[in-house]
Amino acid sequence: MRTVHRAAAVLAAVTALALTAACGPAEDDGAAGAGKPTPAGSAAPSATASPSATASPSAPAPASPSASASEDGAGGDGPGDDVFPCGTAVLTFTATLAEPTTGSYLLKVTNKGSRPCRALGHPVVTFGDLDGAATERGEAPGIEDALLLAPGATAYAGLMGGPDDGGPGTTVGSIAMTMETDSDLEQTPLGAPTPGLHVSPDTNSVTPWVDNAEDALSL
């Protein structure tokens, strides 16, 4: 009888141990997953780099055009530059007796300015208080072909007179001169002494501006 009770007790103890093992705490799924090693050869996903913005090439700025125009009224002397007509403000003026027998005078103007100018046409010569001006003698070149006076350069013209033969006219001691400018430019007349110049409606004439004295008196 005692043996039966001991066997029953042993069986009960074994059964209790088996139940305890079966009902033990289950592993936490998340913890188990964290503890598992990463299989060899599998890489962790990396963040995809956002594509960098491609800078648009900036267009080169256009070059600023340089000013080729002259800053003052005298103009330039390069190809295509405007060269303005000479006015009396940039000239010196003299009149020299060239032929005493005929009373002709050599007129001379010199560019005292710092820029070139063009001596257009004929000098405009007047005789003091007398009305009218010397008539034009010979043909002058056009504006584009007019004589170019560089700073310090000289142009010449001939003022043809005539002997005082007792005919109509009078003798003057000076003349005044302005330049053709093909414009309304106001000019201060330049004066020069001309002792004994006989002024007559039929004899006084003036040649166009040229670059030498000989041609000025022979036209």
TrEMBL record:
Protein name: DUF4232 domain-containing protein
Highest taxon of source: Bacteria
InterPro entries: DUF4232
Ranges in a coiled coil: none
KW Protease (keyword) present: no
Signal peptide: 1-21
Keywords annotated in UniProt: Signal
Domain (DUF4232) ranges: 86-209
Region (Disordered), start-end ranges: 26-82, 188-210
